[in-house]
Design brief:
Helix content: 55-70%
Number of helices: 9
Shape: globular
Number of domains: 1
Strand content: under 5%
Radius of gyration: 18 Å
Length: 229
């Protein structure tokens, strides 16, 4: 089914994923351990998806959970363990903020996918997805908020919380638009792209990276000066 898509859309999404991983790697201070974990995870999911494993959508529990639960559990571990907290607190908040510019090409890809009937319209900026605003404002917030330090702490917190809300909004919309037993939206054109390679990298790779980027900066901003990790 995915073979009917023009190759340039697949390449655009693939390159966006590579860029997201690279920017996150740079934000972690060039942590090779982090890089290898992410790359190994993406390769594993690529091989699994190429078998058609995720296209079986009527299983209980949904196989799709294998894409999203491991990264979410890892994020929780990072926030509740001493080593995880130190890892988060040593990330570069400016680079984490600039990373959100990848949401611009992601929105372009989603728009192209709707034209080929792989995602519903409500998942794009023509529907319920306002994530493009995050991508457009991220360079400004990164530059004036962290590089030049012209924006206050509470502005940066508000921006991160608002953009985190936009991410959660589209993530829930995408999940409830997919052809699972609990589907709630887009029955005429369900979200099927995320069942195929390379688009499975969106829920298992890009979304967790973007989510952790917001949460890490929020934690750093809320920490008291001198507070131990």
């Amino acid at each position: 089914m995915i073979e009917t898509l023009p190759a340039y859309i697949n390449w655009l999404f693939g390159l966006t994923t590579v860029l997201a991983v690279y920017l996150f790697y740079r934000a972690t201070g060039n942590s090779k351990t982090t890089l290898w974990i992410i790359v190994a995870w993406l390769i594993l999911q690529a091989f699994i998806s190429l078998t058609g494993f995720y296209t079986e959508t009527d299983t209980r529990p949904p196989r799709f959970l294998l894409l999203i639960l491991p990264p979410l559990l890892l994020i929780i571990v990072l926030f509740v363990t001493p080593k995880g907290k130190r890892f988060i607190d040593n990330m570069d908040p400016a680079r984490l903020t600039y990373l959100h510019t990848i949401r611009i090409p992601i929105e372009v890809v989603l728009f192209l996918l709707i034209m080929h009937k792989f995602v519903p319209q409500l998942m794009t900026f023509e529907g319920r997805n306002f994530d493009l605003l995050t991508g457009l404002t991220a360079p400004l917030v990164g530059h004036f908020g962290f590089t030049r330090q012209k924006l206050g702490k509470w502005f940066l917190l508000a921006w991160n919380f608002i953009c985190l809300g936009l991410l959660i909004n589209i993530a829930i919309t995408a999940l409830l638009s997919a052809p699972f037993p609990f589907q709630q939206f887009a029955y005429d054109q369900p979200n099927v792209a995320v069942l195929y390679f390379p688009y499975i990298w969106l829920p298992c790779g890009i979304v967790p990276i973007v989510l952790l980027s917001h949460l890490a900066v929020i934690r750093q901003l809320l920490r008291k000066p001198g507070e131990a990790s």
